[in-house]
């Protein structure tokens, strides 16, 4: 009887795992089967035509890449520096606990609140207007807590002896960090950063009011231009477009491209971590 | 005190410095392209607003840009309210609006130094749509108002099966939302009305909802040949119990006003339009533009609106 | 020698600034929300705001700014999501951490990571095209755009958080605990239920709180599938409105500086405080988790 109970119990746990995998499977299956027929070279390189009922999603792909670059340029240097502070310089105490608490709380702030903040600060306050810059910075703020957390993790895994070795040889604190800690934390930092940026690439709420638009006749020329983006494109195609029947396959195609993009970034991060770890065992 | 970084394994150093180089390059690229834009000096027009109008205006913009390639037009939806807010905030050149600006909005604009000017470029019939299986073909305006205000709750009160009425509408940023409420309901919507993100979602939802009813611009439910989409039914509307119920699918009904729910589609500019903006608006009002309007499922501007446009001095 | 010392101090200060910026940003967001939100109360009463059930800022007759229905809507979809995600999540986490073979574990972990990475708008899309019609057919409803749909989708989004953190907590339980239990003759199931899971309790609760935080803060998914009706919901089959959806819907249409504009910041502030509150509870449990030496 006991044995029976054990089998049922453990079986239920296994079932939970199966259900979770099933969720993922259904989502991927539906989007892939209905979207793959739409994807071809033209879909990826053409502009939308005839009111988005024909043509492709090229400007949305470019827009997403463009805004993600801005996010990267802002959040990674900023985030890694903050992580260096926490891991190398900060003394445990009131101020440091406050900083850590702030970072954890920032991670939990809803993305639409970042959007509100972005409108108030970047669009209006700093007069950047609705632009790639405003949207990129807003996404950068959203990604910052993640970058800081994963970078700090990476820095922590570097053994203390590395630092002490450099100091023993007469290096200053910064020199020891720069030469003996950073390089070895780089794999972890990179992996975390790429994962964080892949999340940013898929976000819609923060860019809604900070710069994304429905249709542009040409690609953005500068960071002060508005832009199209994949997640927003999918949103519009699935809720606001007029010829929904015609456009439904295109929506599936857009969803597939978006998922493949995010997935590729995730894979790149994981492969990078694996290869760099192999190269220098910490 | 030599820099110990040189003792670190080569691959890491290469990687790191490559990263720095790439970053610097991207930064440079971004800055340079930023400057480039000012040199080119391409004229650009910003149009924001009505979801009802966005596809039509986009199509007009597409054709216009083919003829005048040195002008670039960016069109966004978001609802009439969004367009008007953008005009007031000086963030757009043209505000698409499927309703007229309210007194309060006009005052707000003027307080901020914006002088809204209304141009009518098309007419639109608002269609009431239901699931194709619903055995109701016509309704009076009064019944429609009662349904959407939540005073009639079940289809059985209207000679149809016992089904709770499932209401679909837009959100408050939509001109269609405001127009329908102010002109047809003359009161507030039922709290139970589902507020969809766009007309497409309304049509989509009603196709699957046997008890659904919603209001959409006619252009959304007919294709270029004038045939109604599959799965939905367009209800005939009567002004009152004594008038005949007419369908908005016949353009004559809308043009002559026989179909009671029709409205002008506006574009608002800051002051009388000039330059490239004026060129575009003239194109919209011209023969080619109005043809695009008709093929989109909307109706060309009628005489009285042509008159009001002329008074603004924008027609030749 | 002195120059180097100054340089080092400057570098230290530079890094300190980047660290403290986190606090500045958080404070900035809070202040922006509160300062703008407070201006709403120049026109609207506090009790009308917090206890009013109708949110209708651009009403035909009188504008009303009552958030109660929205708050209930938000909590409803979150509750529904947790009812689905918590048992599934903890169960899956226990399976991955304790029962599964290493090979299966190495397959499942990436799968969970992939699930976590799916953008919210794609999940909302699935809600419209797949889950909605399914719900309508299963329950004989005419429409599948309701709180239930939102709950199902939010559970999918919260699951990776709950699973990953719970799994960490379960794996962190010292082997001695389990071995002692086995030594006393308990089988795997009993050990799991009576020893391992209770020991990992703090970590599991923390994961649930973070999952709740994720669900409460989600915007696009609920915007696309819950129907957005402003009425107070009575059942999961009703269409509901969440706070996040309201901000996303209305932020675009408000001219800056109107009551409606301030109202959106006010509900943003409410949402922000709820998120911070949930986070605080999570942190209390994380501290317990760490302190217990596990």
Summarize the structure in words:
The complex is a heterotrimer of chains A (282), B (316) and C (294). Chain A has 282 residues and is mainly α. Chain A has a single domain, classed as Orthogonal Bundle (MetI-like fold), CATH 1.10.3720.10. Helices cover 76% and strands 1% of the residues of chain A. A two-stranded antiparallel sheet of chain A has the order 1-2. In chain A, a hairpin with a 4-residue loop joins strand 1 and strand 2. In chain A, helix 3 crosses helix 6, helix 5 packs across helix 6 and helix 10 runs antiparallel to helix 11. Chain B has 316 residues and is an alpha/beta fold. Chain B folds into two domains: 129 residues, 3-Layer(aba) Sandwich (D-Maltodextrin-Binding Protein, domain 2), CATH 3.40.190.10; 139 residues, Periplasmic binding protein-like II (D-Maltodextrin-Binding Protein, domain 2). In chain B, strands 1, 2, 3, 4, 6, 7, 8, 9 and 11 form a nine-stranded mixed β-sheet that branches. In chain B, strands 5-10 form a two-stranded parallel ribbon. Chain B starts with 9 loop residues before the first helix and ends in a 5-residue tail after the last helix. Chain C is mainly α. Chain C has a single domain, classed as MetI-like fold (Orthogonal Bundle), CATH 1.10.3720. Chain C is built from twelve helices and two strands. Chain C has a two-stranded antiparallel ribbon. In chain C, helix 3 runs parallel beside helix 6 and helix 7 packs antiparallel against helix 8. The longest helix of chain C is centred in the N-terminal third of the chain and has 37 residues. Chains in contact: A-B, A-C, B-C. Chains A and C meet through helix 1, helix 3, helix 4, helix 5 and helix 6 of A and helix 1, helix 3, helix 4, helix 5 and helix 6 of C.
Oligomer classification = heterotrimer
Radius of gyration of chain A: 23 Å
- What would CATH call the architecture of chain A? Orthogonal Bundle
- Strand fraction of chain A equals under 5%
> Nearest-angstrom radius of gyration of chain B?
25 Å
Under CATH, the topology of the largest domain in chain B is which? D-Maltodextrin-Binding Protein, domain 2
Binned strand content of chain B: 15-25%
- The CATH superfamily of chain A appears as MetI-like
CATH class of the largest domain in chain B: Alpha Beta
Tell me the span between the first and last alpha carbons of chain A.
49 Å
Report the total helices of chain B: 11
